[in-house]
Amino acid sequence: xxxxxxxxxxxxxxxxxxxxxxVLEVLKICLSKDDSVVALRVRSPSLxxxxxxxxxxxxARGRSVVIDAPKLERLSLMDYYHFKRFEIIxxxxxxxxxxxxxxxxxSDYLSETKIICNLVKDFSCVKDLTISWKTLEFIYxxxxxxxxxxxxxxxxxxxxxxxxxxxxxLESCPNLKHxxxxxxxxxxxxVSTRLSTVLPRCLLSSLESVEMETPVTEIATExxxxxxxxxxxxxxxxxxxxLDESTGEQHKPGVLERLVKYSRRCKxxxxxxLPVVPTPSPWPGxxxxxxxxx
Length: 294
Known about the structure:
This protein is of the alpha/beta class. It has seven helices and 14 strands. InterPro entries: FBD, FBL13/AtMIF1-like, LRR_dom_sf, LRR_FXL15/At3g58940/PEG3-like.
């Protein structure tokens, strides 16, 4: 069921619409600024996938979401996040979360910190998490609680900020086993090449697999990250590095070769350096503008 451009007149109307179908498995809601819903209650014995979007900023606070769906396997939050309370009463044992939201900052630092921390706490039992850069960058500003149950993480982050941010993220995931990183260029952030010498717990005890997709940079920040994992991850078995040369930058001679040589000393079961192959457009000359719709 897709609810978009549908004005929900009240909390009760929204709850009744969602719960009226005993076989509902997929639900996508795009909230509107005209909605009158204050407390969105998602109660369904059959729901397996739920996508919640707000496609435009909305600064009213005090709204909440409560999810009671014992078969829910996947939850996606998109665009703007403005909920003061977000509670998951029940879900499936195998539960994946995808967060791609921009928090609407307020002048009240403590209130904003509480909103972000409460959201993370609601996902403290999640084992599989995907998080975008626009969400992850708030960790730069606000400390978050640890995700002790998280074993699989897919994250995008700014390449320039990654030497500082990556150890913070890893420290928040003490039992992480599988990591996929998408590194992006985001020029407002100052370049930093120093990685913390204080090692996150997951490097010492659990991390087994790392995959990175990254632009090539002349200063080879991406290779420093790869070496960081090789040197410090005690249980690392697999490291895959996908290099995107579309930026036009190149490594200095011999830098990549030295990394390959170093990988042999680390005795990894699998180490690969692969090019990122651009996906050709099926419609040459045609420019597709992404819709705000689902």
